[in-house]
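ok trying again, last paste got cut off:
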Amino acid sequence: MKQYVEPEGSLLFYKCNNVDFAKGNGQLFTEFENGIATRQINIINNDMYISSSLNDWNKNIGFLLYDGHIDSLDLSESVPITRVEFESKWKEALLVDVNKSQISYLKGDASLPLEENTLIIHVVNLLGLWGKGFVLSLSKQFPSAKKDYLKWSKDKETFRLGEVQFVCVGQQKPIFIANMLAQKGVRKNDKDSTIYIDYDALRLCLKKVARFSFMNRLSIQMPKIGSGLAGGDWQEIEKIINEELIYHKIKCNVFEL
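nice, full thing came through this time. structure:
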């Protein structure tokens, strides 16, 4: 079981105006967290290529994201910049990105990892209940996800809305479960129209999920979180996913049964 702590002072941003890419010279903007490159903006001939994945490659640039620790990189020609400057350039690049990210909707069971490096995310409730909906399939595949959640539910200090519990379930491959605490209760029956999802808590959880996926080089998959027993509006949830995950170019698969 792993509790994620929002980084304080662990984010660094650099800009280099003189970078040799595969097809010429250009600019490079890089975000580092704890020494690991998490997002990168590559600019050549006024074209902008952005990435948060080691798999991204372009013939004009090469690989779009640094692999390795900041200590092994030569940043002598780079200068520190602010987070505001980096985000401004990232938003500019998003507008011209030819390979715009979007949620991929798939049919099937979200508890079955699609890839070797996967983070399966779902919403859990404040009541310490695990017994209906997606969790049945999830705990069948990965019993430790339920075991760790139930243990966590007894911790009065950390078991609160907006927190995320990351559980490593892969024996050979990096597979993680994210138990996101963003649900106040559960639907009692089909006639119960109460909205139990807390959208603000969900947004906070997804911010932590984004950072965790960056650091561990993970793609994300999920059921239609918060829209079942939590009673949430999927259009509102989809909007939050776009703002907190897709915005960062994180690969995101949503499974519908």
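cool. Helices lie at 83-96, 134-141, 143-152, 199-216, 234-244. Confidence is low (pLDDT under 50) at residues 1-8.
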